[in-house]
Amino acid sequence: MSSQQNPAPDTAEAAAAEPRPRRLTYAAALAALEGAALVGGGLWVLVLALTGDPDGRQQAVTLGITLVVLALLPLLAARGLLLRRSWSRGPAVITQLMALPVAYNLLQAESMAIPVGIALAVVAVAALVLLVNSETTRALGIKGPGRTE
User: Fold this and answer.
1) Taking Cα atoms as reference points, which of 70, 82, 67 lies closest to residue 29?
2) What whole-number distance in Å separates Cα of residue 93 and Cα of residue 78?
3) How far apart are CA 37 and CA 73, in angstroms?
4) Running along the chain, 149 residues long, what does each successive block of 10 average in pLDDT?
5) Alpha-carbon span 10 to 85, nearest angstrom
6) How far is it, in rounded angstroms, from Cα 45 to Cα 37?
């Protein structure tokens, strides 16, 4: 067979043959941690709404359901990162960018929310650094703009 009939494997297949970089695994773990925290927070708000005496029961239930649904984004991104799907980096980056203003608002509070804000900011920045790392980009088979190789 000629070389025209057997094209060389593309970079995504070649990247999939290599072991998953630790940075990619760490990014997936941080995204999964954020997703789990959102699920936990949503369930906690739902339990308080149903068993306690919130100011607005309907608002509390809506918030709890919203948090659980929002958890799908980082959880799906984490699964995609572990499976080395190139689409998964976008939702993971969006999750981190959404977490930064939340962390800032928590840091502005004068309560026990400040340590949570610090932890959220650290996790979001660390995950962003891991996600834009060149090793992670190569492992996901993502090519830069204008790169056809």
Assistant:
1) 82
2) 11
3) 12
4) 44 62 94 95 92 82 94 95 93 95 92 91 96 90 71
5) 14
6) 12
Q: In sequence order, what DSSP letters do the residues of 21-71 get, joined into one string?
A: PHHHHHHHHHHHHHHHHHHHHHHHHHHHHHHS--S-HHHHHHHHHHHHHHT
Which two tokens mark 77?
Answer: 């991104």
In the chain, how long is the greatest CA-to-CA distance?
Answer: 75
Position 91, amino acid: P
1 is written with which tokens?
Answer: 């067979």
Phi (first) and psi of residue 10, to 5 degrees: -75, 170
Mapped onto helix, strand or coil, the DSSP state of residue 52 is coil
Return the amino acid letter for 57: R
Residue 96 CA to residue 124 CA, distance in Å, equals 5
The three-class DSSP label of residue 149 is coil
pTM: 0.81
CA 58 to chain centre: 28
Which pLDDT score, from 0 to 100, does residue 98 have?
94
Question: 118 to each of 28, 30, 114, 132, 148, how far by Cα in Å?
Answer: 20, 15, 6, 21, 40
